[in-house]
Amino acid sequence: MARLMAILMLFAAAPAWAGVEFGARLEQSFWTVSSAPDACELRHEIPRYGVARFQERAGHELGFRLDTDLSGASGREARLVLVPPNWRHDLRPRHLADVGSEARTLSLDRATTLELFHALEAGYQLSVEHPSPGAGGFQVAAAVSTVRFRDVQAEFSRCRAGMIQLDFRPVAEWRVHFDTNLSRLDARAHETLREVLTAWRAQRHMRVIVAGHADVRGGDTINDPLSRRRAEAVRTFLDVYGIPRNRIELRSFGATWPLDPGEGEAAWALNRRATVWLAP
Predict the structure, then answer these.
(1) 172-279 has which fold?
(2) Signal peptide span per the entry (predicted)?
(3) CATH topology of domain 18-162
(4) Which residues, at least 6 apart from 83, have a Cβ–Cβ distance to it below 8 Å?
C-alpha cells in the first residue's frame, strides 16, 4: 500500500503537458526562394500551422512574418525563443522577442528580423509559443526549422542583389492601371488617386513619387515613353486637385518591373500601371 501511495504521489507531482507542438519533420523541412524584380521571399512551411517568410521589397528593409492557419489565433501575444542545436551543449535557449499578432500574422521589426536571420544561419531553431485559440487553456509551440536554411542563402542573396533599388523608403503605396497602349485614367484610377490626395493632405511634408510601367509587349521604343506618359497623367491629376507639381517626382520603368512576369492578358493588365508612393 505504501508503495502504491508513493507511485501515486510521484505521478501527482509530475507536471502535466498541456500543449500542442507544430513543426516540419526532417524530410519535410525546406526553405524555398521566390523572386521578382521588386521582391524576394524566403519561405518555410510549418505543416498544419502556417508559413514563415523573410521578405524584402524594393524600397523596404528585410522583414519577417509568420502567418498562421489557426482560427482565432490573432491578437494573442507570442513568445519567441531561439533554441540552439542539440549538439551545442554549451548554449542555452535565449529569448528573442515578445510580440503581438494581428489578423493571424506575426511580424518583426528590422533589428529583430536580422537577429533571427543570423541565428538561423548559425543553426538555431525558432520556437514560437502562444496560448491556444479558444478557451482550451493549453499552449501552442511552432518550430521554424533551420534545416536546409543555409542551402538557399546564395540564391536569396542573388535575388536581393538583383532587385530594383529605390532611393527612398516608401511609407504608403497605391497603384492605378491602364488599358493597352493608353495613358488615360479611368474612374477607378480617379478613386485611388483621391486616396493619395487625402493621405498627402494629412502629411504635407512627404515626398510624392510616381512611377510609370508598361507590359512587355511593344519593345523599349514604345514602352519607355508610354510608361513616362502614364506617370505624367497621374502627376497632372494630383496637381489639378491639390498637390503642387513641383512636389511630385516622376520615374518611368518601361517593362523592366513587372508585377507578374507571366504571359497573357491577366499578367499584362497587372503590369500596365503607375505606382504612387509617399516617402519622407
Answers:
(1) 60s Ribosomal Protein L30; Chain: A; (3.30.1330)
(2) 1-18
(3) Immunoglobulin-like (2.60.40)
(4) 93, 124, 125, 126, 127
